[in-house]
Write a structure and sequence with these properties.
This protein has 5 helices and 4 strands. The protein is an alpha+beta fold. The chain has one domain: Alpha-Beta Plaits (2-Layer Sandwich), CATH 3.30.70. It has a 4-stranded antiparallel sheet with strand order 2-3-1-4. The longest helix is centred in the first third of the chain and has 9 residues. The radius of gyration is 15 Å and the shape is globular.
């Protein structure tokens, strides 16, 4: 059985392109969440620096991540963002070494 793979993907918009980058990144949410093996796909925007966007993603396996990376809406992302970002996207892969434990909600 494969272990889940976690992805942190950061995108830095130029100040004048924040809204355009946000729109493009939001378009990725629905199709990505519908992919087999996608366990989590969240987009965060930095509260102190709104040009900084971060995806927090979890895929069931490396194979599921490979399928995601090959999807047309992902393969075209770099070219769509090219003139809108301050620097190239930073995508890093992680494996969990200390999983969150369930919280006791019994009071």
């Amino acid at each position: 059985m494969s272990e889940p793979i976690h992805v942190i993907a950061r995108h830095s918009a130029r100040p004048e392109t924040i809204d355009a980058v946000r729109r493009i990144l939001l378009e990725l949410i629905e199709p990505s969440r519908a992919e087999p093996g996608c366990l989590k796909y969240e987009l965060l925007q930095n509260a102190d620096g709104p040009a900084d966007f971060t995806f927090v993603e979890t895929f069931a396996s490396h194979e599921a991540l490979k399928l995601h990376a090959a999807a047309p809406y992902i393969t075209s992302l770099a070219s769509r963002l090219k003139d809108l970002v301050a620097r190239p996207s930073d995508v890093r892969l992680y494996r969990c070494i200390a999983p969150e434990r369930a919280r006791n909600t019994d009071g």
